[in-house]
Amino acid sequence: MIKVDEVSKSFEQPVLKNVSFSVNDGDIMLISGKSGAGKTTLLNILMGILNPDSGNIIGMPTKKSAVFQEDRLLDNMDYFSNMHLTCNQSDEELLAEFKVLLPNEDPQKKMKEFSGGMRRRVCILRAMLCSSDVLFLDEPFKGLDEKTKIVTMNYVLSKRNGRTLFLVTHDKDEIAAFCPNKNYLITAEEN
After folding, report:
1. Superfamily of domain 2-190
2. Which of 92, 47, 44, 91 is nearest to 65 (CA)?
3. Listed residue (66, 32, 29, 70) closest to 49, CA to CA
4. Shortest CA distance to 68 belongs to which of 160, 14, 135, 132?
5. What element of type H or E holds 64?
6. Which residues, in sequence order, are bridge partners of residue 166?
7. In the chain, N or C: fewer CB atoms in 10 Å?
8. Closest C-alpha among 63, 77, 28 to residue 184
9. What is the value of pTM for the model shown?
C-alpha cells in the first residue's frame, strides 16, 4: 500500500495543503482538478522529483515509469534509440509494440519528424514497456484524436499488468475507462 500522509507544498503560495490518501498495490488512482490545483506537483512529489514541504509518502516502490506532460524524447534519435535508454526489450519486441500504436509509421525516423500525437504514443510505449512497479501518467492522451485515444487507452489498460497507476486527467471518458467506479482523487483546492 502507498500512503500519502498530510503532504503540503508551496512555491510562492500554497499548491498542496495536507493531502492524504492511500492506494492499494495494483489500484488505479485518478487525480483530477482544475488547472493550477497541484496535480502535476503531487505527481512530482510521488515520483520523488520534488520534496514536500511537510508530510510523508510511505510505501512507494522504487521502480517507477512515467509519461510527463512534455514528451522528454531525444529529437535526433529514433524510436529504438529512445526506448533503449530506459527499456531492455529487443528491437523485435519494441517493433511489435510500436506497430500496435503507430501501425503506419517508420520507427527509424528521428523523433523530431513525428507529430505531437505520435510522440505522445512513443512516450506511452516507453512508460508501459519499462520494468516498473508503479506508473505515473500526466495527461498522457492529450493531443490524440478520439479513435487513437481509445486504442491507446485500451493499450495502457492491457499492458498495466497489475501495476499501481496514478493518472492525471480532466477527461470524463478517461475517468470512465480507468475508474468506472469513480474512485478518484480531487485535489483539495478544487473543493
Report:
1. P-loop containing nucleotide triphosphate hydrolases (3.40.50.300)
2. 47
3. 66
4. 135
5. strand 64-67
6. 29, 136
7. C
8. 28
9. 0.90
